[in-house]
Design brief:
Layout (H helix, E strand, L loop, with lengths): L1 H6 L1 H4 L3 E2 L5 E2 L2 H15 L2 H15 L4 H12 L14 H17 L7 H15 L12 H14 L4 H11 L9 H28 L7 E2 H17 L6 H9 L3 H13 L6 E2 L1 H13 L7
Antiparallel strand pairs: 1-2, 3-4
């Protein structure tokens, strides 16, 4: 009895005695223990732990909405419900996997390297889940579709991102290893941010009354941007090229713009679309194609 009291003090405090004089574990304590075992056996305890870790990792502004979205996407987990897939069921399952992979990829900004890489691995595992007639692994078709979804959701003009997709896509039936998948995801997200920053830069150059920029000024800024990217060639990673573009100081840009305006050549307009396409081309030229 002493051993029981030492091992289970909470139970001893509420224990009763049977007619034989032996202590009986209270029904409340036994129920609590069985409920805890049930939650652990069905995986709820581990699932809640994983959800809380994701909240700590992402630190969202609205944690409750984040958790709601997290558990909604948990319902799309396969391989458990993966095998029933026959078209069109298989097509629906594939779209669910793509949606869940996208959600994981957006949990952390690419600059949060450890968290981003962890989420990339989760997204890769999600897309690599096997169905009844499919071996585990990620094929080029699914990988390329995810790249297109990222670019489309990022609202980058199609003509801007098309050259990048051409460089980093894989053949439909080609196996895509994790390192290629990670590089492709990182490159896409960095390009979208690069284009967004280029758009903000163009907004400073354009004439608000005409909604266009002077071509001399626009080209001078692009030349300065190209020089910054050339200087970062040794790094050879997409994020480094983004940092190079960010380090363009106001002084160097102002000097380039003054020189352009001081030239005697007549000015002509440069549209936002043309500026973004040329800026993106500078970035894409640095990206290595998939072997």
């Amino acid at each position: 009895m002493a051993a029981v009291e030492k091992r289970r003090p909470a139970v001893a405090a509420v224990a009763g005695f049977t007619d034989s004089g032996r202590p009986a574990v209270s029904r409340t304590a036994a129920t609590a223990e069985s409920e805890e075992d049930f939650l652990r056996q069905v995986g709820v305890t581990e699932m809640l732990r994983a959800a809380l870790l994701k909240v700590l990792e992402a630190r969202p502004e609205e944690p409750i909405a984040f958790l709601a979205h997290y558990f909604e996407n948990m319902g799309l987990r396969s391989p458990a419900n993966g095998g029933a897939g026959e078209p069109p069921g298989q097509l629906l399952l594939q779209q669910q996997r793509l949606g869940r992979a996208l959600w994981h990829l957006r949990l952390a900004h690419h600059s949060q390297r450890t968290a981003f890489n962890n989420n990339v691995s989760v997204a890769y595992a999600c897309l690599s889940a096997s169905g009844r007639k499919k071996k585990p692994g990620l094929d080029g078709r699914t990988y390329s579709e995810l790249l297109k979804r990222i670019c489309r959701d990022g609202e980058a003009p199609e003509e801007v991102v098309a050259p990048l997709l051409h460089k980093i896509q894989c053949r439909d039936h080609e196996a895509v290893p994790l390192d290629v998948f990670r590089a492709g995801m990182l490159t896409c997200f960095v390009l979208l941010e690069f284009v967004a920053r280029a758009g903000a830069l163009y907004q400073l150059l354009e004439d608000p009354t005409l909604a266009v920029a002077d071509r001399r000024v626009g080209q001078a800024v692009l030349d300065t941007l190209e020089g910054a990217l050339q200087a970062s060639d040794a790094a050879a990673t997409p994020s480094r090229y983004l940092e190079a573009g960010s380090r363009l100081g106001p002084d160097s840009l102002a000097l380039a713009m003054d020189r352009a305006l001081g030239a005697r050549r007549p000015g002509s307009p440069m549209t936002r679309e043309e500026f973004l396409e040329k800026a993106a081309a500078l970035f894409i030229a640095k990206v290595k194609p998939v072997a």
